[in-house]
């Protein structure tokens, strides 16, 4: 994997909540750490599928980061530029 140290909360991240959804991670002692709160969306006229999709996408971020790093290490040239751009954005470098 990348030799760059991750600055984000380690995964896995998961979604909880009923109305406002929360993306969380387990930290020391099993405590939940809130990563993000995902509120209602205009597309759903409140709480619904788009809100859940947004929360699921955020929760997948650590896995997507790892997958992109692996992809680059494997040398897939066609996806390389897109992967590098996404990694830079995820690392706050874009």
Describe this structure in words.
The structure is a single chain. The chain is an alpha+beta fold. The protein has three helices and three strands. Strands 1-2-3 form a three-stranded antiparallel β-sheet. A hairpin with a 4-residue loop joins strand 1 (13-16) and strand 2 (21-26). Helix 2 (61-74) packs antiparallel against helix 3 (77-90). It is globular and about 40 Å long. The chain starts with 12 loop residues before the first strand and ends with a helix. The model has no long low-confidence stretch (mean pLDDT 83).
Annotation keywords:
94 residues, alpha+beta, three-stranded antiparallel sheet, 41% helix
Q: What level of helicity do the residues show?
A: 40-55%
**pLDDT averaged over residues:** 83
The strands making up the biggest β-sheet line up spatially as 1-2-3
Percentage beta strand:
15-25%
**Secondary structure tally: strands:** 3
Largest sheet, strands/sense/barrel = 3 strands, antiparallel
Q: Unreliable runs, pLDDT <50, ≥5 residues?
A: none
Helix tally equals: 3
Order of helices and strands: EEEHHH
Distance from first to last alpha carbon: 20 Å
| Rough outline | globular
How large is the radius of gyration? 15 Å
Structural class: alpha+beta
């Amino acid at each position: 994997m990348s030799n760059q140290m991750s600055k984000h909360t380690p995964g896995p991240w998961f979604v909880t909540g009923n109305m406002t959804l929360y993306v969380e991670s387990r930290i020391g002692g099993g405590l939940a750490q809130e990563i993000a709160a995902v509120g209602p969306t205009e597309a759903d006229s409140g709480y619904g599928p788009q809100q859940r999709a947004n929360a699921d996408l955020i929760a997948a971020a650590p896995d997507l980061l790892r997958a992109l790093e692996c992809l680059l290490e494997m040398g897939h040239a066609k996806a390389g530029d897109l992967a590098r751009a996404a990694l830079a954005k995820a690392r706050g470098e874009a």
